[in-house]
Design a protein that fits this description.
- The protein is of the alpha/beta class and 229 residues long.
- The chain has a 7-stranded mixed beta sheet, with helices on both faces.
- Strand 4, helix 8 and strand 5 form a beta-alpha-beta unit.
- The chain is globular, with a radius of gyration of 17 Å.
- The relative contact order is 0.12.
Length: 229
């Protein structure tokens, strides 16, 4: 249990942050502002995850990305930084009170022009994209709704496309018995359990920060590539 909770904190995290690319100044400033102005500043992706999101985007090279859960816009700007010039990111935030902060932050970055903000419930907004598909999706939304958001999103991801789900270790609480009213933990557990048996996708959990699950949607013609008889 302690390994899950402490694995990415303290001196190990400091060492990692000292040996990766620097956090861009605007994102560092957004991080500071979140700690001053917001009740839950830890919800911001932060230096390590931000640099990872940028690099994953550069590796995948998606043309269209969907983010569910914008919060301050930190992760959106990290993703947009890695996009090629003609690519685009749509990000959905359910809390309308965050809109002014998000728009302000996006306006401060040259990468903000690659981002379109949608305010509302993702489950209601996603069908409005019609026949448009995404190469990559990042989910960092209400944990109790993770599975319903995933099911709404998966049909909009191209075959071979990627979905990243944040907070899937949830402070190590996935190893504990959930309190009857702890709907956030129950939502994460439901998501992890159902995803483990979902043969439509390939998946792996990284013990990064609070857990990050990388998911790849299989193509309909997917064939096993190992040498099993």
């Amino acid at each position: 249990m302690e390994r899950v909770r402490k694995g990415m904190t303290g001196s190990i995290e400091e060492y990692i942050l000292a040996h990766i690319d620097d956090e861009p100044e605007l994102l560092r400033e957004m991080q500071r502002e979140a700690h001053v102005m917001l009740l839950h500043p830890a919800m911001v992706s932060g230096h390590l995850q931000g640099r990872l999101l940028k690099m994953l985007v550069q590796m995948i090279r998606p043309g269209r990305v969907l983010e569910i859960g914008t919060y301050t816009g930190y992760s959106a700007l990290s993703i947009a930084e890695g996009l090629e010039n003609d690519a685009e990111l749509h990000t959905i935030e359910i809390d309308e009170e965050m809109e002014d902060m998000i728009c302000h932050n996006l306006s401060r970055s040259p990468f903000g022009k690659r981002i379109t903000l949608h305010i509302g419930d993702a489950v209601e907004i996603i069908p409005c994209f019609g026949d448009e598909y995404f190469d990559m999706v990042f989910i960092d939304a209400n944990k109790r709704e993770y599975w319903s958001v995933y099911e709404s999103t998966l049909p909009k991801i191209k075959e071979g496309g990627f979905l990243l789900a944040d907070n899937t270790l949830w402070h190590g609480k996935v190893l504990e018995e959930s309190e009857s009213n702890d709907w956030q933990t129950k939502g994460i557990k439901e998501f992890n359990d159902k995803l483990a048996g979902d043969d439509r996708v390939e998946k792996v959990i990284l013990p990064l920060r609070d857990g990050l699950t990388l998911i790849r949607k299989k193509s309909k013609g997917w064939i096993r590539t190992d040498n099993r008889k």
